[in-house]
């Protein structure tokens, strides 16, 4: 027995960047809003709350491992066979399963950068190598550069549409052109966590794209538009054998009954939920236009957040926002992502942005 060695852990785990959750609003401080995690500011809808409360009465039992009710609802709602669906603990849980199912040491996982910060983490956990392709100067996916970066080791490519944290989108023609260039044995994951906030009609619905492309998988979540972030439920739409692999690799009983029932109730309350999304989209337009009016350069966003590339001033800007009562998400040295929240929170943010701008 070697001395002081402790359990042997996989070398791949060394140096994994830790996921930085959005900072919470300060408890007991001045009025403070959390605009740092792209959450839905609205509280759960009454019908959804009732379902969750009812399900809470039996959480001494394991949930339905097959998520039968939710799978049936998703199958009807999106017109996809049950065999093409897989659920997980948030779409990040499904994304991790996708990597586990496709990639290991020696393989490459490609994505734009900057994009969703979980991609490098879940890639490194699997032992695969991240290939980060810089966004263009306009903050959008550089699909030509991504296609050119494909090697015979590429196993999975994320296309985050709209992209977190920039809010920028990939449109139908360029996506189709890119997909035509990707070898059929490379899985392309269209991460559509913010799909419901899209108003640009040129942005394709991934579920239409996947239908005749066996190497395309679509990720969706109930965390954002549907407001169930705390319950952890997301899903993938993919052909066999990808969907089957996901069902195999999923953590048994990962999606709680509360989450399953809340997701079904949310799909059934879609009119109300999408009304709320509509209000957030209206606020998004107001925030974007006001920022531009103040002189900021802000990329067109189709998500529930805006992106300000502040470079070296990022941390100072985030501190100024916090002083004004809103917590935003800084990426030091790069920029700040700000979620569209309650009207008052957006006003506080816009006030802070205006004051900061005047100081420049
Ligand atoms: C692009 C993107 N994908 C996936 C997720 C994961 O969401 P969840 O695991 O809550 O479904 C997020 C959350 O921030 C995201 O921004």
Summarize the structure.
The chain has 360 residues and is α/β, with parallel strands linked by helices.
Verbal overview:
This protein has 360 residues and is α/β, with parallel strands linked by helices. It folds into two domains: 116 residues, Alpha-Beta Complex (Aspartate Aminotransferase, domain 1); 214 residues, Type I PLP-dependent aspartate aminotransferase-like (Major domain) (Aspartate Aminotransferase, domain 2, 3-Layer(aba) Sandwich). 38% of the residues lie in helices and 15% in strands. It has twelve helices and twelve strands. Strands 2-8-7-6-5-3-4 form a seven-stranded mixed beta sheet, with helices on both faces. Strand 3, helix 4 and strand 4 form a beta-alpha-beta unit. The longest helix has 24 residues. The model has no long low-confidence stretch (mean pLDDT 95). Pyridoxal-5'-phosphate binds next to helix 3.
Quaternary structure of the protein: single chain
Kindly report the spatial arrangement of strands forming the biggest sheet. Answer: 2-8-7-6-5-3-4
**What name goes with the CATH superfamily of the largest domain?**
Type I PLP-dependent aspartate aminotransferase-like (Major domain)
The small molecules bound here are: pyridoxal-5'-phosphate
Largest sheet: 7 strands, mixed
CATH fold-level assignment of the largest domain: Aspartate Aminotransferase, domain 2
Give Rg in angstroms.
21 Å
Features:
three-stranded antiparallel beta sheet, seven-stranded mixed beta sheet, alpha/beta, binds pyridoxal-5'-phosphate, 2 domains, 360 residues, 12 strands, 15% strand, Aspartate Aminotransferase, domain 1, Aspartate Aminotransferase, domain 2
């Amino acid at each position: 027995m070697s001395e002081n060695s402790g359990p042997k852990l996989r070398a791949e785990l060394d140096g994994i960047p830790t996921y930085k959750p959005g900072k919470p609003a300060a408890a007991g401080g001045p009025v403070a809003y959390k605009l740092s995690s792209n959450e839905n500011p609205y509280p759960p809808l009454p019908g959804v709350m009732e379902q969750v409360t009812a399900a809470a009465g039996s959480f001494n039992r394991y949930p339905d491992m097959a998520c039968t009710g939710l799978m049936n609802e998703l199958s009807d709602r999106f017109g996809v066979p049950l065999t093409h669906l897989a659920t997980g603990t948030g779409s990040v849980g499904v994304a991790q399963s996708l990597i586990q199912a496709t990639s290991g040491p020696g393989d490459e996982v490609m994505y734009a950068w900057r994009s969703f910060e979980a991609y490098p983490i879940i890639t490194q956990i699997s032992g695969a190598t991240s290939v980060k392709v810089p966004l263009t100067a306009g903050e959008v996916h550089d699909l030509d550069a991504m296609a050119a970066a494909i090697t015979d080791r590429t196993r999975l490519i994320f296309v985050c549409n709209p992209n977190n944290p920039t809010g920028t989108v990939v449109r139908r023609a360029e996506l189709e052109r890119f997909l035509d260039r990707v070898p059929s044995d490379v899985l392309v994951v269209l991460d559509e966590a913010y799909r419901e906030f899209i108003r640009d009609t040129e942005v394709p619905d991934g579920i239409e794209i996947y239908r005749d492309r066996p190497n395309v998988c679509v990720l969706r979540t109930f965390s954002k538009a549907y407001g169930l972030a705390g319950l952890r439920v997301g899903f993938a739409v993919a052909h066999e054998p990808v969907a089957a692999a996901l069902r195999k690799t999923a953590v048994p009983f990962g999606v709680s009954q509360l989450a399953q029932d809340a997701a079904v109730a949310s799909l059934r309350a879609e009119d109300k939920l999408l009304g709320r999304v509509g209000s957030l989209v209206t606020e998004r337009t107001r925030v974007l236009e006001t920022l531009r009016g103040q002189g900021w350069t802000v990329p067109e966003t189709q998500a529930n957040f805006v992106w300000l590339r502040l470079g070296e001033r990022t941390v100072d800007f985030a501190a100024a926002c916090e002083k004004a009562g809103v917590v935003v998400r800084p990426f030091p040295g790069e920029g700040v992502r700000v979620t569209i929240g309650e009207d008052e929170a957006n006003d506080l943010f816009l006030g802070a942005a205006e004051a900061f701008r005047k100081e420049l």
